[in-house]
Amino acid sequence: MNKLISCLALILALCVLSCNTSKKLSTTKDATTARVEMAKELVGMWNVAISGTPVGDLDGQLIIEKVADSYKGYVVVAGQKIELTKTEVADSRLDGTFYSDQYGMEVAFFVEHDEENDTLSGMMMESFAIKGNRKEE
């Protein structure tokens, strides 16, 4: 009789745990799906303006592409297309770096997507403001 009660208790415990695990997996999947959906909004071509650099204000484009399960990006300034050496997208934020031949260094930046206005804002090298609008095709 004790073995029967122990077996029933074990089965009940496993059922409770499996239900709880299923809910956790579902919640995690929902959160991941939501992040991917938000990140998709960053994909595209953006006209960007960078204010107050040592060489003055700069205008260019930021191109963000989705490739399999990751992202790829480019900065286009003065007709030169430079591939991003780091492209990390989380929620509605892109953290990126690219190598500047002109200054011989990696340049770090981040932009955040304002979904309501479909605009970007962020900072380059923690010093220069970035503003962007989606480029009309």
Give an overview of the whole structure.
The protein is α+β, with helices and mostly antiparallel strands and 137 residues long. It has a domain at 41-134: Beta Barrel (Lipocalin). The protein has 1 helix and 9 strands. Strands 4-3-2-1-9-8-7-6-5 form a 9-stranded antiparallel sheet, with helices on one face. β8 (119-124) and β9 (128-134) form a beta hairpin. The longest helix is centred in the N-terminal third of the chain and has 39 residues, at 2-40. It is globular.
Any chance you could write out the topology, listing elements then pairs?
Elements: H1 2-40, E1 44-53, E2 56-67, E3 70-77, E4 80-83, E5 86-90, E6 93-100, E7 105-114, E8 119-124, E9 128-134
Antiparallel strand pairs: 1-2, 1-9, 2-3, 3-4, 5-6, 6-7, 7-8, 8-9
